[in-house]
Design goal:
Strand order of the largest sheet: 2-1-3-6-7
Structural class: alpha/beta
Number of domains: 4
CATH architecture of the largest domain: 3-Layer(aba) Sandwich
CATH class of the largest domain: Alpha Beta
């Protein structure tokens, strides 16, 4: 096991010696210093992870040294040593960053325990920070894939809701569009990220149990309630509650959720006092709430309270330009998950994905990619390993789109052209492709050139050649 480095700073030789002996025997690498100047030199050369620092030194103030050391390394553990009964200076040191203090005279074994405990706390903090970083990475924006205009609007709304600490957010979208990812992204990019995020599926819990899950109960509230229990709104204090499928919540519970939103209070089952709550409520549904309100299936007053910061998620069939990005993302993640080395997806397979309408949205596409990657023996995903429904849909639409003998050639999204029996003019094809590229990117020459795999100068030459130079611009 790696030795932890400890620097002992005290102007008493006996203190330095005794602490050095004890810590060395406990398995630590130890150096000592008896002045401020020596401590600064040892700090630079030895690079300690912990400093046992006397408050008073002949040439320095321990509190000032504490500030210096923390300024160089904010993670360093500093334990102050003081001989004063009131320990005012040590308490002041705690306020500006010291981790603990030790009073003189001290028990050597007690100090060993304090040192061991301080290193253990540092290790736990590091593990928690790593866990939080990994959690944030897991639910970061990169899990919401796409650069289509509709997805860009979603990213903007997530940013606004997170940064403004919006207390109520409503996420709307079909099943599989990523409503939970949006909810988690809002939470983990907000000031509430260090507090709990608790999710409950309102459609999966019976009405008789839902109130208990949300609000908890007091001891004796019902037959089996042998002890009190915190509900989600209490457990998530300071954080976020995600009410998934709120459209399936019973009307009676909707009234109680409305009360929580309005009064910011709730009461446990069997309780006689109100409990204050400070949570962000993120609600999500795949149902048409305005229609449900009209038909009496959802409370209108609750809908109007929820419908403030609303984030609509478009189905995948309405943003098919995001499919290549999604495919590459799933390949990357599934390679990590299964230890595969798939390099990409074939143009024909990508075209097949484009032609399918994805009723199950992004979740369905992820499952399709996972199946294909598990069955694909090579390094490029081919369409033969998609399920039959996806393959058949692609073939049917390809057949519908095939040109007649007298029609111009069909150009697919992946760039393939069907040559008509009576031939074709390459120049006309080139002109048509340039027109399409400029139209797709609203006249942006740089993006159109990248799409056509040519330089911008080459594109400019052809624009001039075909006589529609006014159609493009030089935006980067």
């Amino acid at each position: 096991m790696r030795e932890h480095r400890v620097l002992v700073v005290d102007d008493e030789k006996l203190v330095c010696w005794s602490l050095s002996q004890m810590l060395t025997g406990a398995g630590y690498a130890v150096q000592t210093a008896m002045s401020g100047a020596e401590a600064r030199a040892k700090f630079t050369d030895f690079i300690p992870e912990m400093v046992l620092l006397d408050v008073r030194l002949p040439d320095a103030n321990g509190v000032e040294l504490l500030k210096e050391f923390k300024g160089h390394d904010e993670d360093i553990v500093v334990l102050m040593i003081t001989a004063y009964a009131d320990a005012d200076s040590a308490v002041n040191a705690l306020k500006i960053g010291a981790d603990d203090y030790i009073g003189k005279p001290f028990d050597v074994e007690n100090i060993r325990h304090i040192v061991d405990q301080s290193f253990e706390k540092k290790k736990l903090r590091k593990e928690v920070d790593l866990f939080r970083r990994e959690l944030r990475k897991k639910y970061d924006y990169d899990n919401l894939i796409g650069n289509s205009p509709k997805m860009i609007e979603v990213f903007k709304m997530i940013k606004v809701c997170a940064e403004t600490d919006a207390k109520i957010v409503l996420v709307l979208g079909e099943s599989g569009t990523g409503k939970e990812l949006v909810a988690r992204a809002i939470h983990y990019h907000s000031a509430r990220s260090q507090e709990p995020f608790i999710e409950i599926n309102c459609a999966a819990i019976p009405e008789t149990l839902l109130e208990n899950e949300l609000f908890g109960h007091e001891r004796g509230a019902y037959t089996d309630a042998s002890k009190s229990h915190k509900g989600i709104f209490e457990a998530a204090a300071g954080g976020s509650v995600f009410l998934d499928e709120i459209g399936d919540m019973p009307l009676q519970m909707q009234a109680k959720i409305l009360k929580v939103i309005d009064a910011k209070k709730f009461r446990r089952l069997g309780g006689s006092r109100d409990i204050d709550t400070d949570v962000r409520i993120i609600a999500a549904t795949n149902q048409d709430l305005p229609l449900m309100v009209k038909e009496g299936g959802f409370r209108g007053d609750l809908f109007f309270r929820l419908n403030v910061m609303t984030i609509p998620l478009a189905p995948l069939r309405e943003r098919k330009e995001d499919i290549p990005s999604l495919a590459n993302y799933f390949i990357l993640r599934l390679n990590e998950e299964y230890g595969r080395g798939v390099a990409g997806i074939s143009p024909a397979a990508l075209e097949c994905l484009h032609r399918y309408d994805w009723p199950g949205n992004v979740r369905e596409m992820r499952n399709a990619m996972e199946r294909a990657m598990m069955l694909e023996p090579g390094t490029m995903i081919s369409q033969e390993f998609f399920n039959q429904q996806i393959r058949n849909c692609g073939q049917a639409k390809a057949k519908e789109a095939s040109p007649s003998v007298h029609e111009p050639p069909a150009v697919s999204e992946c760039g393939y052209i069907t040559l008509p029996p009576d031939g074709i003019s390459i120049e006309e094809v080139e002109k048509k492709l340039i027109e399409q590229a400029l139209a797709r990117f609203n006249g942006n020459q740089t993006k159109a050139a990248n799409c056509l795999r040519m330089s911008r100068d080459t594109l400019r030459y052809r624009i001039k050649k075909f006589g529609f130079q006014s159609a493009g611009r030089d935006d980067d």
